[in-house]
């Protein structure tokens, strides 16, 4: 009997261990600046990803052959530096985490791609994937493309093309000022904006170009003074985080009478910073915004605001939700969390928005791992005006659509020569 009892206990123990193993979470490493100058942007991303994971877990988690497993977002604070991001990447790999998420810096993203390429070559049994939600420097899915990297945001040239089409159509503008953060993404936006404007409106005069240190300028009044003195009627910038908010505050204080064509002017304090002066003057481009005006969009936004009701937490992106949903679907199709299998399941994958109530759509282009999705150019208006049902961050100001670009029209050629395992 003692042998039978021992065998019974052993079998029960094995069954319990297997059951426990099946419930182990699938960990996603968020490597982001969660302290320092851009902590607000990092925390905003964290909220988006936590909410996306919660939505998956609420329906039972990720369905795998061994049982359903929940998602877990694991925070790694890069403190806004490339060096610390690489240290956090090593820590995540040492912990056996198979999926890395990052986006708030194209310079960091480029370094992570290089580090991941080397890691996956050295350690084929511990390969990982990099899911990028907002590092938009175009080379990351062109010359520097990688089988292990997938970008879920439209890259800078795709976003900029939509913005510059709107600017070029505005015949009240004859003088433009270009300003950006002095790193790969900011440099690219300034250079490419000049090129696109020359193609669309040869009569437009670029009256100034400026690159400033990223995350270190506390007073933008000297920069705004130059813009004002140049007589610019429009400003094009890829600035994000506090660098955008502080610049817009300075523009308001200086009484700068110019339109701002931005990538990120609709969040993280920018609408409240510029206030009434921004009505009809601040434009932004994104894959979605709260005033898209469809029932699916309204329901999605209402659910997010219920989860995060504080006005300062009002920062949600459809692409980050789509990223998590597409990852989950790829893991389920692959029947595994193996990096190669999941990557192949992601290549060419279509997202119809079904798990988000039909909110968003797009396709992950297999050739370069660039997500192709619609874009909206929107302008700042007073909340309650036509097309502006919702405000941003309790500011009393929201954004309404001025141009919708279907997914197929955002697609651009690529220069990726991908090496596949």
UniProtKB/TrEMBL annotation:
<dbReference type="InterPro" id="IPR028082">
    <property type="entry name" value="Peripla_BP_I"/>
</dbReference>
<feature type="domain" description="Leucine-binding protein">
    <location>
        <begin position="25"/>
        <end position="384"/>
    </location>
</feature>
<comment type="similarity">
    <text>Belongs to the leucine-binding protein family.</text>
</comment>
<dbReference type="Pfam" id="PF13458">
    <property type="entry name" value="Peripla_BP_6"/>
</dbReference>
<protein>
    <submittedName>
        <fullName>Amino acid/amide ABC transporter substrate-binding protein (HAAT family)</fullName>
    </submittedName>
</protein>
<feature type="signal peptide">
    <location>
        <begin position="1"/>
        <end position="22"/>
    </location>
</feature>
<dbReference type="InterPro" id="IPR028081">
    <property type="entry name" value="Leu-bd"/>
</dbReference>
<keyword id="KW-0732">Signal</keyword>
<dbReference type="InterPro" id="IPR051010">
    <property type="entry name" value="BCAA_transport"/>
</dbReference>
